[in-house]
Amino acid sequence: MERFFAATYCCLLALPVTSKKSIVKRTLAIAVLGVFVTLIAAVATAQDKKLDKIRVGGGSTSATQMSMWLAKEGNFYEKYGLSVEAISIPGSSLALQAMLAGELPIIQLGGAASIQANLSGADTVIIATIVKKFLFWIYSRPEIGPMEDLKGKIFGTTRFGTLSDLASRFALRFYGIDPERDITMVQTGGPAETVTAIVTGKIHAAALSPPATLQAKKVKLKELLDMSKLDAEYHINGVVTTKRYLKSNEDTVRRFMRAYIEGAARGQKDKAFALKAMGKTFRTDDRELLEESYDLIIKSNFVIPPHPSPAGIASLLRGLEQTNPKAKGAKPEDFADGRIVRELEQSGFVKSVLAER
Fold it and tell me: Rounded distance, CA 190 to CA 293, Å?
């Protein structure tokens, strides 16, 4: 290719100059050739610059889990030199297992799973918290009265150890119901299956998040409690990795967080973009369902910059004290590393992506 352009250039120079007009034509031809050479060189350079491949995982059934997918939809990973394979994993416990097995170095994870693993000796670390409020609503069969009436009933959760399970147990204890003794907890599979289980009478109630809340409303289930109004801060959803991976791949983690934060910021400012991403992720074109998810969670409850929440971790530790003695006296700061998010804020990066709203 270089020889071709060189030969062409020489031919252009060798053309006989017979008039002022021919001089202009030759000059224009050389200029156009120069532009083509520049463009092709730029394309070649871009192709030569390989993206760093990385696999990440997380849930894809709730808007609280959308940050990872918004970054994917907006091509922000590629913007920061990453080729990301984002894998949808049903349940935080499975995502954590995949990370600890070395299959996924970075995961999107909420709830106490990371803390429980850390207490058991794993080197898990929370590096970001994008949602800090319990965005769950407890729905029941129509005949159930107030929350206290759930004693002796069957309560559903997607999987034990997931965020919905944590939220459920927190709400039950808040109303004086012991999840271990006063109620029967069963696994339902997923949000859609949970709604179906309530409708068919297999369970009496469950904690749901958008878009499952809209499905619950459509089938006339009863809303017992809006957990977002409870005075509590938690690590509801964010980014988790291992201390070992963070230490040896800090630049990769930093670039991932740039994409993650920019995707979340774009989602908040650009409703059409967020709805498109959710529709693709949730595999639905139900506009009403998507808009409820956007309004209740992405627009209203994404926290940017997503600093890890010491208060939220402390709340989780208190909730674990009954089942894990190691949680007593544990320091919240031992379970998180907010250095990268802090650096991105202090450098002006966060301010710049928020200013684009």
Answer: 17
Q: Are strands 137-140 and 154-157 parallel, antiparallel or unpaired?
A: unpaired
For residues 105 and 153, membership in a common domain is answered with: no
pLDDT of residue 29: 46
Q: Which residue blocks in 185-338 are alpha helix, DSSP H?
A: 191-199, 212-218, 243-248, 250-269, 271-282, 287-293, 299-301, 310-320
- Residue in this structure with the two tokens 């009496």, named with its chain if needed: 204
What spatial distance separates the first Cα and last Cα of the chain, rounded to whole Å?
44
Write down which residue in 229, 255, 288 finishes a domain: 229
CA triple 251-252-255, angle to 5 deg: 85
Asked if 206 contacts 139 with a C-beta cutoff of 8 angstroms, the reply is: yes
Residue ranges, the chain, pLDDT below 70: 1-49, 60, 357
Both structure tokens of 248: 């040896």
How do residues 223-239 score in pLDDT, each as one tens digit?
999 998 888 888 889 99
pTM for this entry:
0.74
Residues 44 and 60 in one domain: no
